[in-house]
Specification:
This protein is α+β, with helices and mostly antiparallel strands and 289 residues long. The protein has five helices and 15 strands. The chain has two domains: 91 residues, Fusion Protein Consisting Of Minor Coat Protein, Glycine Rich Linker, Tola, And A His Tag, Chain: A, Domain 2 (2-Layer Sandwich); 169 residues, Protein Transport Mog1p, Chain A (3-Layer(aba) Sandwich). The protein has a seven-stranded antiparallel sheet, sandwiched between helices. Helix 1 crosses helix 2. It is elongated, with a radius of gyration of 23 Å. About 2% of the residues have low confidence.
């Protein structure tokens, strides 16, 4: 595999022919990136689309074949990735240290995009990490790129006509996803649902929140889809700075990774807020990857 292309295009290089395979690889990456087209925003959708291509190149640098090996879930992104390779043809000929047979490799191509109006973002898709999240108006989604604790992280924000428990522009929930570590065997769903796995994780979360000045009013573990849902209902410890705030965390795990949802509202709006939190939770699913 040749490493994936980022969302922004590089400038095409017109330097001398590459001297070896390492330089050749760098040159064709730049050639592809220079030809990468922008894709039009998809109404209501924000996130990262990542089609993965299968590319075959002849020794003279001509493209023998290009096809979508793993689709992004959106035809426009798949077609744009194919066009990128077609536009870069022909590429530099193979260097002396490369085999003369046709070379076939895979290339993931990342397209980052957002709707023109932030408040139109109702569907977050990240085919790089294989997740999607959908919400309904008056809520919208705001991806967060600098959340080091998560592979994908999205804020759920109240729109201009907010629900009664939130103010316009206020984040009411955050949804994070952690995929399983690369190189580790994927756990079976039965392992993830076992009490000896769930209970320590719940106790660790309670200890974490205690350090943040929150205490658990109650916790519940229930069947949810094919997994186990662990819900924590939290409030500030006595003497806390925001005694009227109430908090909710839900987490559930699959062999592909774990989802964590954290939300807050004032105490008066909690009943209505819980319905919204559960709707947000139910809007999570796995995207093609």
């Amino acid at each position: 595999m040749i490493g994936g292309l980022a969302a922004t295009s590089a400038t095409a290089q017109t330097a001398a022919p590459p001297a070896d395979r390492k330089q050749w690889t760098a040159v064709i990456r730049d050639a592809f990136a220079a030809q990468k087209p922008a894709i039009e925003s998809i109404r209501g959708v924000t996130g990262v689309l990542r089609p993965e291509l299968s590319i075959t190149i002849r020794s003279d640098g001509s493209v023998a074949d290009v096809s979508v090996k793993r689709p992004s879930g959106f035809q426009g992104a798949d077609d744009a990735a194919i066009q990128m390779v077609r536009n870069a043809d022909p590429l530099p000929a193979f260097t002396a240290d490369m085999p003369k047979d046709d070379l076939t490799f895979t290339l993931p191509v990342n397209f980052s995009f957002a709707p023109k109006a932030e408040e139109d973002a109702r569907l977050f898709v990240d085919t790089k990490d294989g997740v999607r999240l959908e919400v309904q108006a008056p809520l919208y989604l705001r991806p967060v790129s600098d959340a080091p604790a998560f592979d994908a992280f999205v804020e759920v924000v109240a729109g201009k006509e907010p629900p009664p428990f939130a103010a316009a522009g206020e984040p009411i929930c955050a949804v994070g996803f952690n995929k399983e570590a690369v190189g580790l065997s994927r756990p079976a769903q039965s392992e993830l649902n076992a009490p000896d796995r769930l209970d320590p994780a719940r106790d660790e979360a309670i200890l974490f929140f205690s350090g943040k000045g929150l205490e658990v009013e109650r916790s519940e573990t229930t069947d949810y889809r094919s997994t186990k849902l662990v819900e924590l209902y939290l409030k500030p410890k006595p003497g806390g700075e925001t005694p009227d705030r109430r908090f909710y965390q839900a987490s559930f795990g699959y062999p592909d990774g774990r989802v964590t949802i954290f939300c807050s509202s004032d105490e008066k709006g909690r009943t209505a807020a819980l319905d919204a939190y559960r709707s947000i939770r139910d809007g999570f699913s796995f995207a093609p990857k």
